[in-house]
Amino acid sequence: MPMxxxxxxxxxxxxxxxxYDGPCxxxxxxxxxLQVVIxxxxxxxxxxxxxxxxxxxxxxxxxxSKCDHQTLNDFMDNPTAEHVIVWMxxxxxxxxxxxxxxxxxxxxQYCVTYSP
Length: 116
Description:
Layout (H helix, E strand, L loop, with lengths): L2 E13 L12 E13 L11 H16 L2 E2 L9 H12 L6 E9 L2 E5 L2
Parallel strand pairs: 1-3
Antiparallel strand pairs: 1-2, 2-4, 4-5
């Protein structure tokens, strides 16, 4: 029977939204939270869907190390939460088996979910 496993990550980054007519057009930062959800069946031998430590290592290696304490505009034209989460999916999908969903919070109140 398939199960879901999720791991939460925190990172900080700065950005500005060049096409937005409002305060976020100016440079500012966020303490982001990323939740990575995978789906799969537990391995009959070890009983795990995926090792939590491997998940943490792969997410940091392939996505978060590129944006933690960075300016997102340095590698993304318009780093809205919607664009950032799609970029993260593209970075992670080849390396995280069973990737099902990403959730990205810019603030504790504002979140975007992506599951293509």
